Amino acid sequence: MTKNKKINIQGKEITIILDNGKEFISLTDMLKANDGDFFISDWLRNRNTVEYLGKHL
Length: 57
What we know:
- Helices cover 42% and strands 35% of the residues.
- The protein is α+β, with helices and mostly antiparallel strands.
- A three-stranded antiparallel sheet has the order 1-2-3.
């Protein structure tokens, strides 16, 4: 069963989707919160992100 909850980060509301015991952050909400200002490309360049994706995909 999929459930959603919202968290507030620095005054911006971000959706957390709960599905089968796993949590997923809404990238769409994160883009809206940062006005889409190169946020995804910066996030994907982050070493921690690359390591995490390498371990979990």
